[in-house]
Each structure stands twice: as C-alpha cells, then as structure tokens.
From TrEMBL:
Family: Belongs to the binding-protein-dependent transport system permease family. LivHM subfamily.
Subcellular location: Cell inner membrane
Transmembrane region(s): 7-28, 34-53, 60-78, 90-109, 139-158, 187-207, 219-248, 254-279
Record's protein name: Branched-chain amino acid ABC transporter permease
Membrane topology note: Multi-pass membrane protein
UniProt GO BP: amino acid transport
Coiled-coil residue windows: none
Xref: Pfam families: BPD_transp_2
Record key words, sorted: Amino-acid transport, Cell membrane, Membrane, Transmembrane, Transmembrane helix, Transport
GO cellular component, one term: plasma membrane
Amino acid sequence: MNFFLETLIGGLLAGTLYSLVAIGFVLIYKASGVFNFAQGTMLLFAALTFVSLREQGLSFALALLLTVLVMIVGALLIERLVLRPLVNRSQITLFMATLGLSFIIEGLAQGLMGAQVRALDLGIEDVPLFVGEIMISQFDLIAAGVSALTVAVLALLFNKTRIGVALRAVADDTRAALSLGINLNRIWQIVWAVAGVVGLVAGLLWGARQGVQFSLSLVVLKALPVLIIGGFTSIGGAIVGGLIVGAAENLAEAYIGPLIGGGITPWFAYFLALIFLYIRPSGLFGDRIIERV
C-alpha cells in the first residue's frame, strides 16, 4: 500500500506540471480559437532567457523580472504581427502559422543564446521527504505548490475581474462580445501575455527538473493528451487531465511495465487520450460542439 501511495502521489505531483503547460494552450484557445503549437517553444525561450540572464551575473529576482517583461513583450508582438493579420482565416491557417512560429522562436533562441544544455538552479533541492512511511520528492511538492498558486491567480483573474468577464464573453460568443463594445484585440493581447507568463513558470520548473535544452520544447507533446482528456476549453479540465495523465503514467509504469518489459511512460498518455476520443471527444470538461444542419 505504501508503494501504491508513493507511486500515486508522485504521479499526481508530476501531473501538475503537465497541467501548467496545458493551461497555456487553453487560455489562447478559449479567447481566439487558435491552437498555439508555439507554446512549447515559448516555454523553452523563457527558460533560456532566465538562465542566460543569470549567467550574466544578475540576481534571481532581477533576472525573473526581466524574463517576465521579455515574455510579455514577445507575446504582444506575436499577437500583433502574426495572429492579428490572420483574423477570420481558417483554423488550419492559424495552426500552421503557430507551427511556423515555433520554429522561428526556436531558431531565434539558438541564435541568441546558443544550443548547449544549461543547468537551471531554482534553489530547490530534490531530496526525499517522508510523511509516515511514504516518500515524497521535495522538488515535486514545491513545483506542485507553485503550479497550484499559478492556477489560483489565474482563477482570480478570470473569475473576479472585468478582464475575466470580457474573456468569458469572447469565449462564449465572439460576435455578441463585439456588439457589447468589448475590444477583441485587447483581450487577445492580455491572453497572449498571460500565456507567456504561464509559459515562463512552466519553463522554469521543467528546466530545473530536466535541464534547459532544446528538447524542452517537446513538452508540448505531453500536453496534448492532457487537453484531449480534460477538454480544450476548460482550465479546470487541464488541471484534472494533467492529474489523470501523471497518476496513470506512474501507476502503469509501476504495475504494468514489469509485465511487458517497461517503457510505458512515453506512450501511455496517448493511449488514454485515444480512449477518450472514442468515448468523449470533447473531453471531461470541454464544450461540446453542436452543429445545426
């Protein structure tokens, strides 16, 4: 039972990091209907920027502040120069634009900051903590706390402020929101800026966990099953989907892996996502699309 609980808790804590990446997708998708494939490279660029500033001798706080500013300015430029000119284009056009953007950001990051692997030290030691006889990773526990705090701040922003009300209006009915005088371009700017900051938080946590390297951008692929399971339009769904994926991966690797020779973690999340596509295509909390003919 102790082994089961350790495996389950470790998976749930890891799942919060998956959720954090997925939330960046949900924010942009809810506001503009764009699946932002560049979210992974935004995460990478944030981590690389922070590490590079730290290597220049800047303090942790100053490097973090400057990185936040860089991500906000970058997100605003993306919205203004890439997405706004493509308003009213097809979904596949917008998706291909973000796909191309991801390669541009990756190339820009490599040209400005190099391609070598960097260690990212957040001052969090990865040491075991014991709750009774159950061992928990200190890093995973703190990372989960940071993720939960980020989600709480987002919940307050989008549920208790005028900006949040406007965002929900745009997500529910864009034309009706425009008729009420809501500035759609301003909403998109805010959402892209917030998604950039969320990418920064996720990039720092993932970078500290596995090093800042260009494979970090591939974490975007692990967010896809989370979105399919939780729903593309729900922040709560992204959280639940991340927890499900993290826990299921750990339990499957621990109990099914030995029976088939291991190697379950890389593909099990996609297996779960495929099952959900059959039984609930919109995800647990996603909006069902109803087309009237």
